[in-house]
Write a structure and sequence with these properties.
Layout (H helix, E strand, L loop, with lengths): L6 H6 L18 E2 L6 E9 L4 E2 H7 L5 H7 L11 E2 L4 E10 L4 E4 L4 E3 L6 H8 L6 H7 L13 E3 L3 E2 L9 E7 L6 H7 L4 H7 L13 E7 L20 E5 L4 E5 L8 E4 L25 E3 L4 E10 L5 E9 L26 E4 L7
Parallel strand pairs: 2-10
Antiparallel strand pairs: 1-6, 2-5, 3-4, 5-6, 6-9, 7-8, 10-11, 12-13, 13-14, 15-16, 16-17, 17-18
Helix pairs in contact: 4-5
This protein binds 2-acetamido-2-deoxy-beta-D-glucopyranose (NAG) (11 copies).
One 2-acetamido-2-deoxy-beta-D-glucopyranose binds next to helix 2.
InterPro entries: LysM, LysM_dom_sf
Protein name: Lysm domain GPI-anchored protein 2
Pfam families: LysM (PF01476)
Length: 361
């Protein structure tokens, strides 16, 4: 916990980080998570300890489908599972989060790691899981009284830190961001479009100078707005910037990109699973539009066939929305700079349609 001052930088700016060796080892795992019993999806950075494949990462974190891992990393769906990445590559790991009774969030009984010969708790925490947790945290959630006594074949729950709390009254996806050496709070705030006070508050830091390199920081990722209805099987569909997701039984692919005015862009995924259901039509009823199709008029009114959710029986809901995409002198699809109000989606549902074709099994 030694502070190493960087005098010249301090002179230049008061919000520079002081990079300290990681060691904030508290036993209570997780980020602040006050919504008791809440569950949600979270992301965390995993720095590969060796040169390895997507498949081995998927196995380590028990991610059911390769496409979930691909979507979190914005990798093409065609990426093979034997795709190899060099050591130190950072991948985003998607996982289910749950708030515990004591106000912290940890991965919901996943991943479960099976002890192999010559393993030690420290090795598992620091090397296999690249310091996403401390060995004391693994020890605590697994009720291990003596850290030196683990047995080959023993199953260990690795409690990844996460949260399901709203931030500033808005739903977000909490991201365990691995702080690169040399970064500072101001840079992180700018990169993820959050505020210093939010970042410090979430992470229990008194001062921006308390940021630790290599620590896992709780960064709230803003999500795209959607037309998904309350009641839909995937409500609320929270897709953060720079990721996509597959929903409606993999029939629909939705991408979130800050450059599209933070409006979720959904289209038919084109995926057909070997033994899976046939996807129903995704056309907006009464129009020639399929999901994702849009047209602009001369007033910069953009009509889009948008995704509105799906039902237990597989029915896909669509809605025709209108967005105003008129920036002063620039009527492209709204780059998010310039006027504060421009790019704001004024999405009026004009037609809500039920696609009554259901899944053929
Ligand atoms: C390399 O890392 C992967 C994923 O973390 C792990 O499954 C594998 O056992 C590691 N291989 C070696 C040789 O340590
Ligand atoms: C990956 O798998 C494919 C098919 O399963 C195979 O053709 C290819 O050679 C493999 N690539 C590597 C690098 O192992
Ligand atoms: C908080 O809850 C977790 C999981 O239930 C538990 O492992 C941990 O020991 C608790 N911490 C405290 C301080 O009670
Ligand atoms: C650890 O012990 C507590 C209470 O002693 C119990 O509630 C909890 O289920 C145990 N956890 C595991 C993983 O065995
Ligand atoms: C959105 O994602 C892009 C690319 O992944 C990134 O460059 C940008 O900083 C992100 N913006 C916000 C506000 O998160
Ligand atoms: C950053 O957030 C503010 C407030 O939420 C928003 O108005 C602005 O468009 C965002 N900037 C980017 C680049 O997304
Ligand atoms: C969703 O609908 C349920 C029941 O109709 C309601 O209790 C709940 O508050 C709604 N949630 C939101 C976020 O509107
Ligand atoms: C409508 O969307 C479908 C599916 O994404 C696409 O194949 C097609 O080219 C689009 N048509 C128009 C007119 O944009
Ligand atoms: C464009 O949208 C505005 C408000 O959303 C509406 O008043 C106007 O009539 C629309 N223009 C056209 C040509 O549809
Ligand atoms: C599927 O669900 C929708 C809405 O819940 C309903 O309108 C439709 O009739 C259902 N279709 C079948 C075949 O059950
Ligand atoms: C941009 O903002 C200025 C002042 O706030 C306003 O007068 C102007 O109409 C806005 N332009 C657009 C395209 O919203």
């Amino acid at each position: 916990m030694e502070k190493i001052l960087i005098p010249t930088l301090i002179l230049l700016c008061s919000i520079f980080t002081i990079i300290q060796p990681t060691s904030s080892q508290t036993t209570t795992p997780g980020f602040k998570c006050t919504t008791r019993g809440a569950t949600c999806n979270s992301l965390i950075d995993y720095k590969l300890p060796n040169t390895t494949t997507l498949s081995s990462v998927r196995t380590l974190f028990q991610i059911k489908n390769l496409r979930t891992l691909l979507a979190a990393n914005n990798l093409p769906l065609t990426t093979p599972q034997n795709q190899t990445y060099p050591a130190s590559t950072t991948l985003k790991i998607p996982f289910p989060c749950s708030c515990t009774n004591n106000g912290t969030g940890i991965s919901n009984h996943r991943p479960i790691y099976t002890v192999v010969p010559n393993d030690g708790l420290y090795h598992i925490a620091a090397e296999v899981f690249s310091r996403l947790v401390t060995f004391q945290q693994i020890q605590a959630v697994n009720n291990i009284s003596n850290a030196d006594e683990i047995e080959v074949g023993q199953k260990l729950w690795v409690p990844l830190p996460c949260s399901c709390d709203d931030v500033g009254g808005e739903k977000v996806v909490h991201y365990g961001y691995s702080v690169p050496t040399g970064s500072n709070v101001a840079g992180i705030v700018n990169q993820f479009n959050t505020t210093e006070s939010v970042l410090l508050e979430l992470n229990g830091l008194k001062d921006a100078k308390d940021l630790l390199a290599d620590s896992v920081l709780d960064v709230p990722l803003k999500v795209c707005t959607t037309s998904v209805r309350n009641g839909s099987m995937d409500y609320p569909l929270l897709v953060p910037n720079g990721t996509y997701t597959l929903t409606a039984n993999n029939c629909v692919r939705c991408q979130c990109n800050a450059a599209n005015s933070w409006v979720l862009q959904c289209e038919p995924s084109g995926i057909s699973l070997p033994n899976g259901p046939t996807c129903p039509s995704t056309q907006c009823a009464g129009t020639a539009f399929d999901l994702g199709n849009s047209t602009s008029d001369s007033n910069c009114n953009l009509s889009r066939c948008a995704y509105a959710g799906y039902n237990t029986n597989g029915t896909i809901l669509t809605t025709l929305t209108q967005e105003s995409t008129c920036p002063a002198g620039n009527n492209n699809n709204g780059s998010p700079s310039g006027n504060g109000s421009k790019g704001l989606r004024s999405s009026l549902a004009l037609v809500a349609s039920l696609i009554a074709l259901h899944l053929l099994r």
